[in-house]
Amino acid sequence: MAIEINGTATEAAPRPGQCLRTFLREQGNFGVKKGCDGGDCGACTVHVDGEPVHSCIYPAVRAEGHSVTTIEGLSNGEELHPVQQQFLEHQGFQCGFCTAGMMMTAATFDEEQKANLPRNLKGNLCRCTGYRSIADAVCGAARIGQNTSDGGAAAQALAGRLGDNVPAPAGHAVVTGTARYTLDVPPEQLPGLLHLKLLRSPHAHARIVSIDRTAALQVPGVVAVFTHEDAPPRLFSTAQHELYTDDPDDTRVLDDVVRFIGQRVAAVVAESVGAAEAGARAIKVEYELLDAVFSPQEALLPGAPAIHGEKDGETARISRPQNNVVAEVHSELGNVEAGFAAADFIHENTYQTQRVQHVAMETHCSIAWVEPSESPGEDRLMVRSSSQVPFLVRRTLARVFDLPEDRIRVVAGRVGGGFGGKQEVLTEDLVAMAALKLRRPVQVEFTRTEQFTATTTRHPFTIKVKAGTSRDGHLTAMQLDVVTNTGAYGNHAPGVMFHGCGESLAVYKCANKKVDAQAVYTNTVPAGAFRGYGLSQMIFAIESAVDELAVGIGMDPLEFRLKNMVRPGDDMLSTNPEPEEDVFYGSYGLDQCVALVRDALERGGQRYRDAGLDHLGPEWVTGVGSALSMIDTVPPRGHFAHTRLRLLPDGTFDAAVGTAEFGNGTTTVHAQLAATALSTTAPNVAVRQSDTDLVEHDTGAFGSAGTVVAGQATLLAAQELAVRIRAVAAAFLGDSEADCVLEDGAAHCGERVLALAEVYDAAQQQGVELAADGRWGGTPRSVAFNVHGFRVAVNTGTGELRILQSVQAADAGVVVNPRQCRGQVEGGIAQALGVALYEEVRVNDAGRVTTDILRQYHIPSFADVPRSEVYFAKTNDQMGPLGAKSMSESPFNPVAPALANAIRNATGVRFASLPIARDKIYLALKDAEASAPTQLARI
Description:
- The protein is 29% helix and 21% strand.
- The strands form seven sheets. It has a seven-stranded mixed β-sheet with strand order 8-10-6-17-14-15-16, sandwiched between helices. A five-stranded mixed β-sheet has the order 2-1-5-3-4, covered by helices on one side.
């Protein structure tokens, strides 16, 4: 029997064992996404006879004789389904990869189910939004402007300029399932597409003695098997920065030495995914096992196995390869010994942060093919990738494969989440190698297990803190001994270490600061770039220590911070005696953020008292806590962007930019900035992006640079284009340029008005192209601030934690798009709560990742995320475009320490390691009761 898909019977029959998800995608229904293939995330949700099912675990054969509806079939022709309309109106998405599945589930809800979303959306996960906008969309509620410092801004989405809630340009495509992500390519566009799968190492450290590919090549459908013998010999780093020398060259496409369980051993290319997987299983490998080391503390011991000991440190840019040290910093400002001698109270403790996975809903994937040329030697390598950094990917591929950059084109479609994890080259080199050798298109898509075991994680930190204060609350000394675990490869190790030791310390005035930090190799899954880039780990330790200092001298922790935090005119110092030469106070809102959080917590306390909820029972204790953070608005040493803007014949504009869109909202920001400078509206600016053929260069969408770097380039281009439009209009009308202004999509010269379409025609007559370029290099840089506060309740008998109030204040400068910026803050809070409370990539004693599927690795679901109050300081930044600052990474940073400080305030127990899981709270409270029963009675 045929399967009916969106009202049409299909003639295709599913293959034996095929799941419904892959079958539907093969029929062109690309709105059906893969997030897990285990029934855990809901991105693949469709309807079978009107009932929602996870199509990744639903056998396709069971759908025969039934009606299947995908997101493409949910609407009634051009008329959107009500849930699609609500998701569009309330922008219930960011990257949008999970949105189709979320809507397919919500479309079946009755009013009773809508009233209990924590239960009824438990099967659908979102990593970007923090779920608030999703709740607004599902319930049709408008909460924009509530819990913000603007006094209740209008809820409607405006199609305007700076400061308006402009809808995401891709919104309609996202809610209808027509937005095209990396692998959403019709097969007719890539005839002969092959699939690549990897054989990965079962050993933590071994030398490959031999690889027998004979049996693999005999598997039907297998086309080729590639090993280290076929791979380029060049060493590189998977990490991507403007300066590739920021990272150590310690990686090969395929190596003859494996350094962690899960490392690539061989790549099998076949006509189907199944054949490639069978080919990988058929390969026979002989290994020579080598000694392994799994903790950085062990790796630093004399005689420990040198994981990259064969490399020349100077050539590979590894600090001490024989000692497993990738990078290090040792500095002392002032005299910490004297500072501690002058202290009235000293706090010492060791703080630890864990491995965390990005869990972008779209896994790493890419496609490569060779575009033939009529000119000999001019064929081009084409790569379509889920990347935050397409231009840097092109540069890396050119280096590795010894190709001119102009013979490589990299395109990123819409990217399904990143969080730093896609600031790497983890798939593109593989498909490029295969496509160059086979001259056929090759695709690779990582499984969710591969994401956990073989991509990257957040760097685990161990931080020994010693800090002193005077009795009147002034810091006298801060000393930190930091060890970071970079895993088997050093991608991002130097940058994460240096950045972590930067603004986390610089935000506080203290004459005596000492830092000793080392990034260390181990035989474990590599670490890499992750939201916050080292700051969140260090801020957890420092903000916890600051709270302890305040408690130690009997001072309110927020008052202690106010006494010690930097203010305009103060040098921002961490490991260097001189401040960064290009970092300035472009604006300053930290004092406002502290006041906003303090006032919100006071109001929250009054609400609970008025409602009689300040005493939950004899076993419950309550407390409040806060933490602050500072971040440079742009990464150091250059971050470049180029934008080209053109006036089109119909009077609208085309903007070509390099930066990628993965839920960060930069597309909307580009349109708003350009519209503001050109006195038009955002819908009149069409943004094309993420294609290395579009513009000269773009460093990429990381380090929160989408607005303050790429957006600045767009603003400069728009301002220059506005000047040129006025000049053409003035010449055509015979008026002075000074008398011409742009207003409401037209040139107004005195009493006469020339529509932009007419200006275009006039330019054609004058032989003038109305286009302009904007470029920005990421300097000078400013600083942005975030402060978070919590009110919590802890059950001393069970360890249960309840978050009663969550509030964050952000200094984002002039907020370009309040709804979008609030969504970034809420998403950062949600992700940080997962890290604070339960997320952890666990590695066993043999170096194997044991949390390798989503149901073993708990990311926040709808029920886990409290509503957060979000406030914005009122500042106008001198460096940012039209006064704006960055606000993508920074909301994440103060959340974990603020929560730990609130738990400490409630229970008297300091939790110095993450995550602060319920069982950990329970055991710590029992230990505290056993060691100091009178103290526990007090709390």
